[in-house]
Amino acid sequence: MSTGPLDDEPPGPAEASGPPSVPRGGGREAITRAARESFAERGYHGTSIRDIARRAGLSLSALYHWHAGKQELLAALIEESIDEYFRRCDAALRAAGDDPAGRLAALVRATVEYRVSRRVESTIATSEWRNLEPQHRERLDGMRAAATRLWADLIDDGVARGAFRCAHPGDARRAVIAACNAIAQWYEPHTHGGLDVTDLVDRYTAIALRIVDCR
Amino acid sequence: MSTGPLDDEPPGPAEASGPPSVPRGGGREAITRAARESFAERGYHGTSIRDIARRAGLSLSALYHWHAGKQELLAALIEESIDEYFRRCDAALRAAGDDPAGRLAALVRATVEYRVSRRVESTIATSEWRNLEPQHRERLDGMRAAATRLWADLIDDGVARGAFRCAHPGDARRAVIAACNAIAQWYEPHTHGGLDVTDLVDRYTAIALRIVDCR
DNA sequence: CGAAACCTATCGATCGTCCGTTCGGCGGCC
DNA sequence: GGCCGCCGAACGGACGATCGATAGGTTTCG
Questions:
Q1: pLDDT reading at B3 higher than 60
Q2: How far is the alpha carbon of A128 from chain B, nearest alpha carbon, in Å?
Q3: C-alpha distances in angstroms, A63 versus A4, A11, A35?
């Protein structure tokens, strides 16, 4: 959405085509990945740009060649994360039918799968939000609000149509979201590898349906 | 209840009492309070001890006169926070009867009241945990585990006795705890002042009972 | 075809600032 | 006169950021 034409990958090192600039040291992507891991492990202020550069196997100057600075690195990471989450939710809802329970299940599935598959980014987005400078925070607040609205509209609709009987939709919404989001904090692929993600989705769908008191 | 300037023992400037050392500049308590607010607002690494000293209205040296350093300040804050939470839970459970639903309600009440009344400490304890050095972390991990066990034993017992019908007690436990803990992140006394805490307790008790599928 | 100009990805060195911590001293109440 | 609460100055190091240089590829052009 934002950070430029080369956000994904520098033109491939495809053999046949002419060799258009192949970052020798891994380039932008190596730095982004290193920043993601470092921010997740030690937090924004606990990570120095020297840590990031070292992890990427590049120099401090290479970092500044590819990115505007530490703050933009954080903002880009969070933006990409929220953006993907929103797209997943949107797609899940469009594929779902009209039944409130089915729509809630779709949103829970999208969220659980996202939290499991993007644990690292999830941690950053939730715990480093306050370290965004106002310019970035304002922009990203809108995206966050849009994702929240997906949940709110869905639950309000279910209540209005009598499918959900919970007395306080706002609290139900916060409880469901909090429960799903917390997965990123305790789920460890090594430890819970035996737990199939589809099982996890089923369990949290059942919990969510009970929270909204689906008849 | 808690963080008042005279919460501990430093005898107030009461006229009659007299002798025992009254810190002129607010002393230890002023620094602890300043550290709590700063850590909560900007995080451990985002806060400098100069920020803390300035906020307390004292010099950098005064901070070191009262505390061993930045890390000990954080550890003391978190320890006090967990310790009080555990004592509240323990008291609530001892006052509760034998009925699983009643015991769960007691634990939810203790947790919700705690998250609302100690929002600031709650934020620090949950988000600055990783910044504890190993020695402190190991000690505090035990306290955290004890609090989790309170929930786990209660829910397992309810399931064993047939009062709760949820298929996966561990997931129910994590969902309930996550929902209650999240309150500290969205509840604002100014905004939600009209919402009585007893109402909030009732709402979250209902949600918790639905999560564990109480018959 | 070859050279000169240009671009890209990277480097090492360096800037001024802020960090956590330490130390010696000083005024006022016992 | 000694201790208690507090201060200012200082230390070495790490921080985020900037700079000019360079190796090697690409384009331009005579």
A1: no
A2: 9
A3: 16, 19, 10
Q: What is the pLDDT of residues B138-197, one digit of tens each?
A: 999 999 999 999 999 999 999 999 999 999 999 999 999 999 999 999 999 888 877 899
Size of chain A in residues: 215
The predicted model gives A176-181 an average pLDDT of 98
Number of CB pairs, chain A paired with chain B, less than 8 A apart: 78
Top-level CATH class of B70-211?
mainly alpha
Taking only the tens place, the pLDDT of each residue in B23-36 is: 665 789 999 999 99
Q: What is the pTM of this model?
A: 0.88
Residue with tokens 């950070």: A3
Contacting residues 23-42/B vs strand D (CB within 7 A): 23-27
B62 touches strand C (CB under 7 A): no
Nearest CB to A175; choose among B46, B127, B207: B207
Question: Which chain A residues contact residue B41 at CB under 8 A?
Answer: 130
Helix, strand, or coil (residue B11): coil
Instruction: Work out if B66's Cβ lies within 7 angstroms of strand C.
Output: no
Question: Which of 1.10.357.10, 2.40.380.10, 1.10.3370.10, 3.90.226.10 would CATH assign to domain A71-211?
Answer: 1.10.357.10
- Whole-angstrom Cα distance, residue B160 to residue A75? 48
